[in-house]
């Protein structure tokens, strides 16, 4: 039936989508998705109002069966961002779940079609889809727009299939897995990995609707085998698990715990390990590249790294001049560049930005900085633009300082940035949310704590206290707002 969803060919009598009280088995998903696909074949590009509902999953699957590219829309987008995405992508139709009361003005000019998630009693067997060129776009996913207006990354059907199959190899992902998560469905992590991934394998999506430790516990103790989350979610689990034995047992019983979208702080790794005996696996990807590396489920523990290159993906580090760094010392910092079938096809309507993103040999410049150890495992230092600090002739990664600060008993949250310094070039600045706002740790105390574990040139030279760190929908700290 579909190269992306082979399980829909035989449609086994098992759950495909499980959202709250709504469960769609494979025969139902096949019927409703094919029926909708028949109505979409004449569309050029469809937008999907990506709420965490089965209607979103059905809409995306149906469009992919019809060979129509999907633009997932974030329901929490601001008016300006939403208007930009819609104006840039020019969808011919908007798909929404049933019963959306009111849509933003930016969508006012679009025809709207509500997505049914049940099968009519008199429904005939819908027509199967035609073959679709794997190089055609499956999704247009917009970047976060930290350096300008968001850009639409064209993700081909080939790229989606390649990344999901590479992860299946790394994680031992099969049709027996029930993937539990509470991720938003407008980006790569929640939609591609969290919905299309289980459906490609013939497994089950168990979406929590809204993340909570109780929801995770219930889902994992009632058949869930794999948990996907972002660091803020795992932090909440780490804060809860030491006092909640039932949650600890549920996490211990999962086959695989996966964290992504940002580095998971080492203190949270260790707290979860101590409470459950399970290691959280990290992976690394981007909107433009889908997944590049991962710690393997069948490999040795690699806490603090995002693992090795996935099958079929080439990964390398380069210096400031773009020269490859053939080192595995775990210390030398370079920019990550990647090449492989997982890469996007370009930015929609942005040929110049597309050309700038690649070098002459087809390597994609990620802008992410990392080190590589002797096993080939990568440790992300951070973004070149916000997380690499050049101080006193040293290159310093913000991430390792943040991990040390988070281990201080007086620190609840921490972020590290650079500030101009007339002597050092840049100095290390710590942004700290204290556990006790009435008695925050001093700069001297935090500096001594860092020097006790890292080189002296990595110590904070300034500390600024906040009530909370600014974060996006994925829990990533918005460092540009700090700077």
TrEMBL record:
It holds the Pfam family AMP-binding_C. Belongs to the ATP-dependent AMP-binding enzyme family. Residues 400-476 form the AMP-binding enzyme C-terminal domain. It comes from the Bacteria. GO terms for biological process: fatty acid metabolic process. One of its GO terms (molecular function) is medium-chain fatty acid-CoA ligase activity. PROSITE patterns: AMP_BINDING (PS00455). Residues 9-348 form the AMP-dependent synthetase/ligase domain. This is AMP-binding protein. PANTHER family: ACYL-COA SYNTHETASE, ACYL-COA SYNTHETASE FAMILY MEMBER 3. InterPro entries: AMP-bd_C, AMP-bd_C_sf, AMP-binding_CS, AMP-dep_synth/lig_dom, ANL_N_sf.
């Amino acid at each position: 039936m579909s190269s992306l969803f082979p399980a829909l060919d035989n449609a086994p009598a098992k759950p495909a989508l499980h959202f709250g009280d709504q469960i769609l088995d494979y025969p139902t998903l096949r019927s409703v998705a094919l029926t909708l696909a028949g109505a979409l074949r004449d569309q050029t590009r469809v937008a999907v109002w990506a709420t965490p509902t089965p209607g979103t999953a059905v809409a995306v699957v149906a469009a992919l069966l019809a060979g129509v590219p999907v633009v997932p829309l974030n329901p929490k987008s601001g008016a300006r961002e939403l208007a930009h995405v819609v104006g840039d992508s020019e969808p011919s139709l908007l798909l929404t779940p049933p019963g959306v009361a009111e849509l933003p003005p930016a969508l006012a000019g679009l025809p709207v079609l509500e997505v049914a998630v049940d099968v009519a009693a008199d429904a005939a067997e819908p027509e199967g889809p035609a073959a679709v060129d794997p190089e055609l776009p499956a999704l247009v996913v917009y970047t976060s727009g930290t350096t300008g207006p968001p850009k639409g990354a064209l993700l081909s059907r080939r790229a989606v299939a390649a990344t999901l199959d590479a992860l299946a190899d790394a994680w031992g992902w099969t049709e027996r897995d029930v993937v539990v998560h509470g991720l938003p469905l407008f980006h790569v992590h929640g939609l591609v990995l969290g919905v299309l991934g289980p459906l490609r394998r013939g497994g089950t999506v168990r979406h929590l609707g809204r993340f909570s430790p109780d929801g995770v516990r219930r889902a994992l103790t009632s058949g869930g085998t794999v948990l996907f989350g972002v660091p803020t979610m795992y932090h909440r689990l780490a804060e809860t698990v030491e006092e909640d034995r039932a949650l600890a047992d549920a996490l211990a019983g999962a086959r695989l715990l996966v964290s992504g979208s940002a580095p998971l702080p080492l203190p949270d790794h260790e707290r979860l390990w101590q409470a459950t005996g399970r290691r959280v696996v990290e992976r690394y990807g981007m909107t433009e590249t889908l997944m590049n590396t991962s710690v393997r489920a069948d490999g040795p523990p690699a806490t603090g790294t995002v693992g090795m290159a996935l099958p079929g993906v080439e990964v390398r580090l380069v210096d400031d001049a773009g020269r490859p760094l053939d080192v595995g010392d775990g210390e030398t910092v370079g920019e990550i560049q990647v090449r492989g079938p997982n890469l996007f096809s370009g930015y929609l309507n942005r040929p110049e930005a597309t050309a700038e993103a690649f070098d002459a040999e087809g390597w994609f410049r990620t802008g992410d900085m990392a080190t590589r150890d002797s096993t080939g495992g990568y440790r992300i230092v951070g973004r070149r633009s916000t997380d690499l600090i050049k101080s006193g002739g040293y290159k310093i990664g913000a991430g390792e300082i943040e991990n040390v600060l988070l281990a201080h008993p007086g620190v609840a949250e921490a972020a590290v940035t650079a500030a101009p310094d007339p002597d050092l070039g840049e100095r290390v600045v710590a942004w700290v949310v204290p556990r006790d706002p009435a008695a925050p740790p001093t700069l001297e105390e935090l500096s001594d704590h860092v020097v006790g574990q890292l080189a002296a040139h990595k110590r904070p030279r300034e500390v600024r206290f906040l009530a909370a760190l600014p974060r996006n929908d994925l829990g990533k700290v918005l460092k540009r707002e700090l700077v």
